[in-house]
Amino acid sequence: MVEVITGLRADQVRANLERVRAEIAQTGRDPDEVEILAAVKYVPADELPTLAEAGITLVGENRAQDLEAKASAHPDRFTWDFVGHLQSRKVRQVLRHVRYIHSVASDSVLAQLKRHARPETEVLVEVNIAAEHGKSGIAPTELGAFLARCPVTAVGLMTMPPRAQTPEESRAHFATLRRLAQEHGLRHLSMGTSQDYIVAVQEGATIVRLGSTLYGGAS
User: Fold this and answer.
1) Domain annotation covers residue 17
2) pLDDT per residue over 3-44, tens digit each?
3) Contact (Cβ atoms closer than 8 angstroms) between residue 159 and residue 173
4) pTM of the predicted model, to two decimals?
5) DSSP assignment of 157-200, as one string?
6) CA 56, CA 54: separation in Å to the nearest integer?
7) Domain range enclosing 158
8) Residue 3 domain-assigned?
């Protein structure tokens, strides 16, 4: 069971953030081309100012009610994205606070976007690259039709590859997502977490979703 992350120190998070940017640069990518999203599912609202002090500007939340509480507690401090499984009945609640939803993956969500989204709303579509049973995401073969039904602008794709023993095992899944994005003219690839973000960056990630890599050393 993952525990709540407390005891964050701005100097430590800043050092971790700088290390991540340096590692991205070592892949040959321009660090400015890769957004570092701090996943704050296990970070309490009262710890968030420490992230801001450390230079974190983009954060992502997995749960609609926590997103609303944290974003309301810290207005104008961060750019917020929603990165968790999205229930259609939560779409309106989430839209009020976020730049992007990374996990659009059902027609019921599309219906709610049609009802509640603003003209400028942009989203990412979640793709189940490995066709894992019980996992959210659109099948690669169904992506074109899903994008055609999407009532708002889709700017990218997101995926979570299967659990792997090594980061290298995820490379093929990230490469497939990149090819799909290229085929459909989408600019963003939200892929890679603390376990495999270097491989994701090498395969074209434009947004990496990091937790423990940024918070290492906190209690």
Assistant:
1) yes
2) 899 999 999 999 999 999 999 999 999 999 999 999 999 999
3) yes
4) 0.96
5) EE--PPP-SSGGGGHHHHHHHHHHHHHTT--EEE---TTTHHHH
6) 6
7) 10-215
8) no
